Each structure stands twice: as structure tokens, then as C-alpha cells.
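New to this. Please check this fold:
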Amino acid sequence: MSRAASWPWTKAASPAVPQSGGAPVGGGPVGGGPVGLGLDLVDVARFGAVLARRPSASQRLFTEGERAYAATLANPVPSLAARFAAKEAVMKALGVGLGAFAFADVEVERRPSGEPALVLTGRAARLAAAQDVKSWLISLTHTDSAAAAVVIALA
């Protein structure tokens, strides 16, 4: 039995979802194990102040789908902060810094079950493919004051 098969998320993982460009993403089956881990924490009030001060930031940071979902919420800032944290966590999991890809190259989708899933496009998808990333695990959480995301890139 491979080491990856004994990890707790192995049995709970759902089938991979193809991303734009053909490489799978989402909570896919564990194959070769982790390639990278990313964690990010965002101060919700500070993030909300940035969005209020620079309304165009939302266009640059989030996809149309993310903005549409946020528009359905009474207070979209905590949800957007968690999605921003996910984008930064993806950068960390891939071992790259700011500027390696556009924030909108990473989209956090919401499945019908409510589970988040990642969709990578553009440079983010190419970087993931170059590291043989086949799927992702993602967890988001937020309160009124903090938002966090953890992502695991899987081979």
C-alpha cells in the first residue's frame, strides 16, 4: 500500500474535475501524493477596506463567476476574502510568488453540495501542469474578522 493511500483524505476525495486546458483539478483521487501545500489568512476588515477604496480591484482579483456568487450574499466581503486567500494559497502550493499568474487565473467554484473546487486557467494552469499537479484539495473558512484557505496540490 502506498503512503498516500493511508492519508485521511484519500477515501473522501471526489473525482477530479477537468480544468481549462485539460489538467484535472478539484478534490480528485490521490495518485502520486502531495506536490505542494498552501495556507493563507486574510483580515476581512482590511480586505473590505481595499475593495471599498478600489472598486476595480474586484475585477482584477475575481472571475465573473466569483463576483456573481458574491453578489448573492448579504455581506460578500468574508466570502471574497476566503477566495482571495485560496488564490494566494495556490501560489504558495506551487512555490511561486505574486505576479507568477493573474489572480483571476484561479477560480474558486462552489459545487451544488456547497463544497469549493478550484479551476485553474492561463499561467496558473501551465505552472500546475509543469509540476504534474493532477488535482487539488481545498478548504475555506471565514468569520466576520478573518478568512483562511488551505490548498493541497496533488500529483
User: Anything to note?
Assistant: Helices lie at 44-53, 57-61, 64-71, 77-93, 122-130. The chain has one domain: 4-154. The two ends are 17 Å apart (CA to CA).
